[in-house]
Amino acid sequence: MTEDAAGPVPLDDQLCFAIYSAGMAIQRAYKPLLDGLGLTYPQYLVLNVLWRADGQTVGGIAEQLALESSTLTPLLKRLEAAGLVRRTRNPANERQVVVELTGAGRDLRARAGCLGDTLLAASAQSPARLGELNRDIKRLRDAVYRHIGDQGGTQSDG
Q1: CB 62 within 8 A of CB 69
Q2: Residue 8 lies inside a defined structural domain of this protein
Q3: 85 phi and psi, to 5 degrees?
Q4: Of 95, 76, 84, whose CA–CA distance to 155 is shortest?
Q5: How many angstroms separate the CA atoms of 134 and 50, rounded?
Q6: pLDDT bucket at 3, cuts 50 / 70 / 90
């Protein structure tokens, strides 16, 4: 009996699965803290983008998170219902929706700062090693996006 060369590589040998499952493990480590903040991981990512630069368009946020605007909209509606963000039409371009943090959304930033400490403790890695790993994974991601062109990106509304 011969080995099937066309068969899939076992999951444990696939880099994509290692990255995917590492992401899931990190999200599980973050979950108790995010539950305490009343956030899901995707909502935390949206807020993180806004904490860095408030008043961004839906399309701009979607692009940074590699999401479709249509995927982001329900997240934003829930964040708005929770009183953490405000969505308004851009007066200069009515097709664009601008997202801004509320006072409560800005205040949440200080309480969310402990997530990095959680990853440090859970990973048993040094900050320098995690920084190196982060740079390596971003280089890989960017190389793949360059290879596939805009197929892996999102459509932006501005």
Answers
A1: yes
A2: no
A3: -135, 165
A4: 95
A5: 21
A6: low
- The average pLDDT across 47-65 equals 95
Confidence of residue 154 (pLDDT cuts 50, 70, 90): very low
Cα–Cα distance between 44 and 114 in angstroms, integer? 13
Residue 4 included in any domain: no
Tell me the residue type at 9. Answer: V
pLDDT beyond 70 at 2: no
Domain count, the chain: 1
Q: What is the pLDDT of residue 5?
A: 66
Is the residue at 82 inside a domain?
Answer: yes
* Residue ranges making up the domain that contains 63: 35-152
Position 152 scores a pLDDT of 45
**Which helix H or strand E contains 102, and what residues bound it?**
none
H, E, C per residue of 74-133: HHHHHHHHCCCEEEEEECCEEEEEEEEECHHHHHHHHHHCCHHHHHHHHHCCCHHHHHHH
The reply to whether 24 falls in a domain is: no
Q: What is the CATH number of the domain that holds 39?
A: 1.10.10.10
Each residue of 84-125: pLDDT tens digit?
A: 999 999 888 888 999 999 999 999 998 887 788 888 999 999
Distance CA 40, CA 33 (A): 10
Max Cα-Cα span within the chain: 69
